[in-house]
Amino acid sequence: MKLFRMLSAAVAEIPRLLPLMRDARVPLWSKIVAGVLAALVVSPFDLLGDIPLLGLVDDATLLLFVLHTFVNFAERRLA
To answer: In Å, what is the CA distance from 48 to each residue of 15, 41, 52?
Structure first.
């Protein structure tokens, strides 16, 4: 149940992603790290591999986790 709340919170943060990526006050290194991690998650080369029986669900969960972490970090830096 906690996982579903985290996923729904991450989905709700999607509209805040682009303004934070454009904001000059957010450190460049955090934008690069978030972009690289997102690219690794969606790349066809699975470094971690898929969790059996879950397929793309684990990739989507990791991508939403990266999004959630970046948005929270960036908003704390701006506060």
So the answer is: 28, 9, 12
